[in-house]
Amino acid sequence: MFEIKQIEAEHTYTLRQKVLMPDHSIQECGYTRDKKKETLHIGAFKEETLIGTASFFKETHEKLKQKNGYRMRGLAIDPDHRNQLRGQTLLLFAENKLTQLDASMLWCTTSVNNVEYYQHLGFKETDHRFHLPSKGLNVLMVKPL
User: Fold this and answer.
1) Which of 4, 23, 54, 117 has a CA positioned 20 to 30 A from the CA of residue 85?
2) Own/partner pairs for 32-35, CB < 8 Å, 24+ apart?
3) Domain 2-103 carries which CATH code?
4) Three-state SS for 117?
């Protein structure tokens, strides 16, 4: 059985560590806005096992003009469950929740190496690029809701 539901921030940390931050401790896998009441954490489960997570923060970006935008961070799909539409299904569930909160846009930043995957999820690449010492060249991506 496959299920997607809202979860608590702490439930995202193990998968964030495994997929996104393998060199960090579990305590270092939290984000600053994880505990804000307007933050949304979504989990994808196969039977009782968490296999995917993403977090959505009510946050604007200086390069974007839209109000009531949400930032997606921490999209992590267990490697054993990739290429099974888990990320896409998780994102669709989150988008439904966000539109109920009157969100007008979703945005994220990602490595240029991941742009094609995010385009597959419906995000559009912007001209805004920046370099992060630990992650290389990144790009701002947006998706209207």
Assistant:
1) 23
2) 33/57, 33/59, 34/9, 35/9
3) 3.40.630.30
4) helix
Where do runs of H (alpha helix) occur along 1-123?
13-19, 86-100, 115-120
Q: What is the pTM of this model?
A: 0.92
- Using a pLDDT cut of 90, give the percent of the chain over it: 74
**What's residue 135's pLDDT?**
75
| Burial class of residue 79, CB neighbours in 10 A (0-12, 13-18, 19+) | exposed
User: What's the CA dihedral at 45, 47, 51, 52 to 10 degrees?
Assistant: -10
Amino acid identity, residue 103?
A: A
